[in-house]
């Protein structure tokens, strides 16, 4: 390959300048500098200007040499496009369209961009998934009204949604290209950067989705605090929000069922007790059985009490006591007095082993009825006295036995104290 242009033309110096600038680029093994690229482009401008002055007098050999040099320039297009800032330079110099050497990136497609269609397709898939997550989040954040946390969640969702929809427009893509320019990054990376941003948004959405159970637990604790304070309306709001974030929070379903029961909304209480059953909590079976007992569906109620006794832990005194007591109750309703007596005696014996501040007396109230039916009047009066003097009312159903015990004592002229409400 010739490295010197031998010509007698007085214009040969511009071809030599062009050649020397081109040689500097060809011989550079590392990335080109902007100065090297500008030198060869301006040298080509000079050649073009000289040739335009004597277009009719150009010797054929000079045209041939110019075509060879142009071919060599085009062979360096990847290095020039990679290191150059052609678009910025064009905005300053305003070359004519026929000055093709200022438009090399459009003449030769950048191999780096050959996968742009794939990146753009993946970006669209990611953003579609993000929008789906956002729609789901928005519905979950407004179940029970707005507080600081849910308001923040909705505002965040809205901001991300605007970002997503904006990035799908041509205007959004142009803004991204402008940002890349400000960061000194080539525009050819636009598709890859768009994919990276969409991937980060999708990962963030997935992370938030996986964090929803923690948010659900937060609202469950708020609901538990409200329930403990007997603030049942506030407890209901927080527990519904907890379930919206984590429908598999069986403790929240159980507590919401108890909340509805305290609000005398038994249909909703039953619904949430049923949804809490997969948690295999013995209290769920006890409470649900008690509702069926109130409906006089004794067989179903008994099956729930028995299943609860299978599940209850040995050290869970309150629930084991309630299960034995309620099982005795449902057996009385079925006229199975011997079996009822057995379970109620077990409940009373369990109660006697507890510290005084944990003792309960509902079993004594119900046991008095068994003794009365079995003609043990003395025992019935003794159990009724214990019931009236000590029993607390845990539910509406418990009032029945305390009232019956009091009437029994009134019938024999024995005075008893007022049973406590809890």
UniProtKB/TrEMBL annotation:
Repeat positions for TPR: 282-315
The transmembrane segments are 124-143, 149-168, 189-208
Is the keyword GTP-binding assigned to this protein? no
Q: Which InterPro entries match?
A: TPR-like_helical_dom_sf, TPR_rpt
Which domain of life does this protein belong to?
A: Bacteria
Q: Which PROSITE patterns match?
A: TPR (PS50005)
The question of whether Cell wall biogenesis/degradation is a record keyword is answered with no
UniProt entry keywords in alphabetical sequence: Membrane, TPR repeat, Transmembrane, Transmembrane helix
Output this protein's name: Tetratricopeptide repeat protein
What species does this protein belong to?
A: Anabaena subtropica FACHB-260
